[in-house]
Design goal:
By secondary structure, the chain is mainly β. The chain folds into 2 domains: 16-118, Beta Barrel (OB fold (Dihydrolipoamide Acetyltransferase, E2P)), CATH 2.40.50.140; 126-223, OB fold (Dihydrolipoamide Acetyltransferase, E2P). The chain contains 3 helices and 12 strands, in the order αββββββαβββαβββ. It has helices at 16-24, 119-122, 159-174; strands spanning 26-27, 35-43, 48-53, 66-70, 84-98, 101-110, 126-127, 133-141, 146-151, 185-189, 204-212, 215-223. Strands 1, 2, 3, 4, 5 and 6 form a 6-stranded antiparallel beta sheet that branches. Strands 7, 8, 9, 10, 11 and 12 form a 6-stranded antiparallel beta sheet that branches. It starts with 15 loop residues before the first helix and ends with a strand.
Length: 226
């Protein structure tokens, strides 16, 4: 048995890392001072990216306009950070000492307002309740970690989901793709699968739905057959 979603009394997040950082790191303007800027890119495979700070802050001339951000400082609510590009962000600045040389780096990078850089937030994902649907895996690219689920033909979709799916299909047709408007096909990623789910093509699955900027997708995917 394992504990999940552990918080302080009242639901407050446990922030032990903040206390450790306060003892071990030197900050520009203090640990709680926040700046805004633009994340030029973040590559999770390489473990770093670069942020351009907005103009107008009263900081020492030694603080560069562009600074490196590393995986440990990407606040993604405990999950592996996603590839990102051209995202408005908020952050602190800390000073890393490398021998006789100092380097300014990004600290605790979030979305503006302190919101974690999660997939849901970045893609404006809205979960469509906790209703479980059933279907089968139509496509599964194991190497790249993505696929499509085909819902059972009799599946009744909420009106909001049906409208969003139709928009997604029409946009695909406009790009020259052959898409059946009758098909209920939902994109999903490996991160959308429940822990322990081992998928393969034609496997029967249970899933929930969400909508985002791109259309409709499946999440909470779990296999129903061995």
């Amino acid at each position: 048995m394992r504990a999940k979603d552990v918080t302080l009394m009242g639901g407050t997040s446990i922030a032990m890392q903040d206390d450790i950082d306060a003892q071990e790191k030197t900050f520009v303007g203090g640990q709680n001072l926040r700046y805004t800027g633009n994340l030029k890119f973040f590559n999770p495979r390489k473990g770093f990216g670069y942020v351009t700070m907005d103009q107008g802050y009263d900081v020492d001339a030694s603080v560069p306009n562009e600074m490196r951000v590393e995986t440990a400082e990407v606040n993604s609510s405990g999950k592996r950070p996603l590839p990102m590009q051209n995202v408005a962000v908020e952050f602190g600045i800390w000073i890393a000492q490398k021998g006789q040389r100092t380097e300014h780096k990004i600290y605790n990078m979030t979305l503006p307002g302190g919101h974690p850089l999660t997939q849901d937030a970045l893609e404006n994902r809205i979960k469509m309740g906790v209703v479980n649907y059933q279907g089968s895996v139509a496509i599964w690219n194991f190497r790249q970690g993505w696929g499509f689920i085909k819902a059972d033909p009799a599946t009744m979709l909420p009106q909001r989901v049906a409208s969003k799916l139709l928009q997604q299909q029409q946009a695909a047709i406009a790009r020259g793709r052959q898409v059946s408007l009758d098909a209920k096909m939902f994109y999903f990623r490996r991160e959308d699968c429940m822990q322990g789910a081992e998928l393969r093509k034609d496997m029967e699955v249970s899933f929930q739905l969400y909508i985002d900027d791109k259309g409709v997708g499946a999440c909470e995917v779990i296999n129903l057959s061995a």
